[in-house]
Amino acid sequence: MSEAEVRAPYPFRAYAWQQSLWQSLEELLVQQRLPHALLLSGADGLGKERFAKAFAARLLCHQPRDGVACGQCKSCSLLAAGTHPDLMWLTTLTDEKTGKTAKAIRVDQVRELVGFAEKSAQMGGWRVVVLSPAHLLNVQAANALLKTLEEPGRDTALMLLTSQPLSLAPTLRSRCQQRPLPIPAEADALAWLVPQVGDEQKARLLLALSRGAPLAALALREAEWFSQREPLLKDLMQLTQQRQTALVTAQRWHSLGAESLLVALLSLLDDLVVAASGAATVVKHRDLAPIIERMSAHFQPAALLRFRQGLADRQRLLAGNVQGNALIDATFSDWVALTSR
Q1: Mean pLDDT of the chain
Q2: Dihedral angle at the C-alpha atoms of 76, 60, 89, 131, nearest 10 degrees?
Q3: According to CATH, what is the number of the domain 3-180?
Q4: pTM: predicted TM-score of the whole model, two decimal places
Q5: Is 233 strand, coil or helix?
Q6: Residue ranges of the domains in the chain?
Q7: 1 with 48: CB under 8 angstroms?
Q8: Which of 8, 57, 270, 323 lies in disulfide reach of 69, CB 3.0 to 4.6 Å?
Q9: 91/103 Cα distance (integer angstroms)
Q10: pLDDT tens-digit map of 214-260
Q11: What is the mean pLDDT of residues 284-301?
Q12: Phi and psi at residue 318, to the nearest 5°
């Protein structure tokens, strides 16, 4: 779910599967023992941003009810309008001219955060800083944040959000109380997802492919590669049986783009490895299980794992200036080489 979707309307409540974490923090808040720095970690698609926004609202609300923001006071109105003076949301910057988003959170941004945290609250309550994704802090930015994490201003709460907590420096992690966002039970996830999707079987499929993260499952429904899985598998089978060439196949998939193609192939390879290992009954692409099982019979699991590692390496190359179509061409050529061994 995009930031725009999370922001409109402003979420004053966390998702249902986050209630246990919410309740534990609410109890600390009531007991005046809330940590000044929280590291909220969890896979993408679990709703970290939604949780942080709702809890920030709870801290800033003038008239909280039953442990959540009221949604009606002046503070909540300012949050809904995106103009609350005591909330700072720090993330990577996007260049207005080029539309490109920076790959890191920079030290000048953190210096602005430090200045914000040192001031008194304009509305007489908390000051809240949310930093996301925290693992994109560059080294200088992370170092500039350390003192504020250790000694923030009075009634200042910092929430660092990340899907990669181990990518953060130990000095950062040690200054925060770490609170992982749990993957919801399947029943809880489906209770939210099925009404969004309108089909229980498809919801189960999306959830399985998203490793149990409900928001990621909903976003996957709209991903172009999701609808192209079966044609892609059939093309791989055609290559395996030497019924078409790698060049012709690659050209057909240029339009999807290297990033989406690699995501699709990595997901399918996970199931091919499982099926080749004799566990075809537990593949995640359940709707494509028969094709996956037939194809897996042509390969040894170790060979598929080596091919998958090559895909992961190419995915990392995309972060540089590598030409996407060249990666697609090389990927299908490698598949042909794999099948000819």
Answers
A1: 93
A2: -140
A3: 3.40.50.300
A4: 0.89
A5: helix
A6: 3-180, 186-220, 224-339
A7: no
A8: 57
A9: 10
A10: 999 999 999 999 999 999 999 999 999 999 999 999 999 999 999 99
A11: 95
A12: -65, -20
